[in-house]
Amino acid sequence: MTQNPQAVDLAQIVAEDRQHVWHHLTQHKSFEDNDPMVIVSGEGMRVKDAKGKEYLDCVSGAVWTVNVGYGRESIANAVRDQLVTMNYFANSAGNIPGALFAKKLIDKMPGMSRVYYSNSGSEANEKAFKIVRQIAERKYGGKKHKILYRERDYHGTTITTLSATGQFERKGQYGPFTPGFVEVPHCCEYRSQWGDVDDYGLRAANEIERVILQEGPDTVGALCLEPITAGGGVITPPQGYWERVQEICKQYGLLLHIDEVVCGLGRTGSWFGYQHYGVQPDMVTMAKGVASGYAAISCTVTTEAVFEQFKDNAGDRMGYFRDISTFGGCAAGPAAALENMRIIEEENLLENVTEMGEYLLGRLNELKDKYQVIGDVRGKGLFCGFELVKDRQTKEPVDESLPTAIAADCMRNGVIIGRTNRSFRDLNNTICLAPALIATRADLDELVEALDGALGRLAPNS
Ligand SMILES: Cc1ncc(COP(=O)(O)O)c(C=O)c1O
Q1: Phi/psi class of residue 380: alpha, beta or left (left: φ > 0; alpha: ψ in -120 to 50)?
Q2: Atom of ligand 1 nearest to the CA of 120
């Protein structure tokens, strides 16, 4: 059957979707009276739905994925060419794009060495957790097996990655969780746990040390953090935070696992978010922007020192990494990733992200000057957000219904934005923006105009 939207009966498609598809993160009751949105085409920053309405997509496929934009024929061609040559073989064997992409990726990540392929961010994180557990088992008699994660971070949708997720509502109703995951406090300075202090970054990092000492350093194997907390409210790290985190990991022998599923591949203006902060991780996971959604691929990247621990004793029949991901062997993923990376380089998209990111932050701060409801504007590169509050003094968050209404208003006006939802008990109050790395000033002006209109209608200053 053809995929050409012109050649299918779109009303029928919408009806069939409504009848048979179970959508992600969606309460379906509303589809008893309304049609689901069905996206049929995309070009650059824009997508079109089945009813012919066009939108400026300011969240790169809703979940910060389509980094190089829609309609990239060169990626589609690279995938097609690869599929007709060799589509799949389990990754116990290699393939051409897998080898080429691993080399190119490692070139962008000084200090890192090995790439393990799988097909989603959650799965990439699970691999890292398994690496920690296996090292604990082999080197420390199973004792150093605990993994620390941070309040407000998210690491995936499986039961174990949810066990490592610091978002109360996101986890709600899915327990019991995997044991051995321990939470450390968040590092959102705007929501400082210690009032107005001038060494917030240091204090927040020292809280990690407090938890390690409380648990017993000989029981803690790793710390898993997002470089910038994404879905938890676009939380950029406070000054001094990462330097201290690195020291703590070294001091207590923790592997530092950085989850770059959102920030990786240019989202913040460097190849990886952690590279802004001068840290050296032991493991890095990535997914979404690796192939911009043209194929499913994720990577768990490690140092040679981590890798070595799985090959140092060939006589130990249990001593190598006994993990497999069936679709980690799909050659379409690295084929798409290679072309995706070429585009980012040749179109100087990292530079564009830095320049446009500063422009967007400036425009959002103008909105903050205009609307009292905006309490805090945060971001790095083309990953920005702002918190909505009832009162700037008390910082009391607005009810989730306001960001929901703002997003719906923008959507009606042809601009797709994001928001935190059903993540926290009372902090579902952040608008999230992550346009493709190709965004222009005109695109961002259109976005800000939509936000301005929505805020003016829904939260005028009173
Ligand atoms: C930081 C982070 N890690 C991991 C994941 C999970 O990725 P996936 O949905 O591909 O499993 C996400 C998804 O949004 C994420 O934001």
Answers
A1: beta
A2: 10
Tell the residue nearest (CA) to atom 13 of ligand 1: 156
pLDDT in tens, 339-353: 999 999 999 999 999
CA-closest residue to ligand 1 atom 4: 155
What is the 231 CA–ligand 1 centroid distance (Å)?
9
Instruction: Say yes or no to pLDDT of 1 above 50.
Output: no
* DSSP secondary structure code for residue 175 in this structure: -
Structure tokens at 145: 């097996």
Say if ligand 1 is within 6 A of residue 303 CB.
Answer: no
What backbone phi and psi angles, to 5 degrees, belong to 355?
-70, -50
Q: For residue 288, give the ligand 1 atom closest to its CA.
A: 10
- The 3-state DSSP class for residue 256 equals strand
Exposure of 442 by Cβ count < 10 A (0-12 exposed, 13-18 middle, 19+ buried)? exposed
Three-state DSSP state, 286: strand
Q: How would residue 75 be classed by pLDDT, with cut points 50, 70 and 90?
A: very high
